[in-house]
Design a protein that fits this description.
Blueprint lengths: L1 E4 L14 E3 H8 L16 H14 L4 E5 L5 E3 L2 E2 L6 H7 L7 E6 L5 E7 L9 H4 L4 H4 L5 H8 L2 E4 L3 H7 L4 E3 L5 H7 L5 H14 L5 H27 L3 E2 H15 L2 E2 L4 E4 L14 E2 L4 E6 L1 E2 L8 E6 L6 H19 L9 H16 L8 H7 L3 H4 L32 E4 L2 E3 L15 E3 L2 E5 L4 E3 L8 H12 L1
Parallel strand pairs: 3-9, 7-8
Antiparallel strand pairs: 1-2, 3-6, 4-5, 6-7, 10-13, 11-15, 12-14, 14-16, 17-20, 18-19, 20-21
Helix pairs in contact: 10-11, 12-13, 13-14
This protein binds glycine and manganese (II) ion (2 copies).
The site of glycine has 7 residues, from loops.
Length: about 475
Amino acid sequence: MTVMTETDENRHRKNGLYREVSIELAENMKRGWADTERRDVEPIAQAVHTARRRKALSARFPGETLVVPAGRSKVRANDTAYPFRPASDYVYLSGDQSRDAVLVMEPDEPGGHRAAVYLLPRSDRGDGEFWLDYHGELWDGRRNSLAENEQRLGLLCCDVHALAGRLGAVTGPVRLLRGHDTGVEDALASKVSAEGDAEFRAFLSEMRLVKDDFEIADLRFACAATALGFEDVVRALGATTPTPERLIEGTFWTRARIEGNDVGYASVCAAGSHATTLHWVRNDGAASPGDLLLLDAGVETRDLYTADVTRTLPVDGRFTPVQREVYRAVYAAQEAGIAAVKPGAAYRDFHEAAQQVLAEHLAGWGLFGNRSAQEAYGLGLHRRWTLAGTGHMLGLDVHDCAKARTRTYVDGTLEPGMVLTVEPGLYFQSDDLTVPERYRGIGVRIEDDILVTEKGNENLSAGLPRQAEEVEAWMARIRG
Ligand code: GLY
Ligand code: MN
Ligand code: MN
């Protein structure tokens, strides 16, 4: 006898080849499964840090319910989803990476909050979700039980199916991190305000400006793994000529998947004049001897912190004289930028220091006509060839802390524990008639990840050489 038909429980696979499930099969699938509950689960290394972060958040918003969704997995087509990556603020506060989960912090007596993560429990063997739902455990793999997650994360874990009821019962002020879960946004629409949520979002971003020891260690690992990926690419450049940009992208991505979770952003694998396009991620060209390859790529760790590193490499291992000339200018600018990274410095200092050096070189090459470097710099004329700002905060997001208020970020002051990129570049478009022909089509960026320390700074990506002759020697060594 039929108990389920194509049009109900099996509807997610509309054109599945089985029309029905017999009572015998349904009953059969409920039984005979061993108890696999793990009773020896260790807390994640980050748990002490996430507890401290939640405490700081709690202190800032006493008496208010705080809601931070992980985000929903996005459907690509039918029952196929895009790879899921949880919202960074959710990860920062929970250490969890589940899809469709939500952190809820409810005010608790006598002050403070009671934090709970609402997430999917294990599949229930009794109702068929386990094996008939396309995202049941039989299809997607075992999930942690709620008890196991409580052990891992060090906080209360509840069945996400109870979330709607819980949110419906909330009284008093609520703050929601918007932009990740429209279901939660709809449920709370009448209880939140745009201004309140914007303030909440800014505070979350600003909490992440100064990294703790766990985050710094993870960023250090991300940089070390990224260095391995760059070495792999140097080997690939020597092995295949010309080297497709897609091969370069895939080579780096393979390393990212082995060492970490993924790449932290789409890799820029820009050969020849593609290097003059800041975000060249089409990667449909090829790198030939005589070209420069601008590779901007970062490994994202399994805890989801990312490196963001750029090296501009001579494909055949040796810079031409004009490539070296441009490279040295960018290197000098980066040196000046890095030297300006220290506690107490204005955040903007490293940018100003690097850009002024670039302007001086541009003036020396006659690109400002009769204007001095200072005058041209004041007018911003250098920006035709420098294009972007010199860097940004780095962490869980490649452009980290982006929702922080201007006065605490770009108009703020560097503190120990902040991590930022220093990434000056010069980009001479192929069709730029205002530069001598020899420069056209050359793009150079050098990007490193710099930790502000008590005494100054530490270059976390120093494992990769930057200076032109050291880059050449390093490439020669790798190729043997
Ligand atoms: N890779 C993006 C950036 O450098 O900002
Ligand atoms: Mn970059
Ligand atoms: Mn960057």
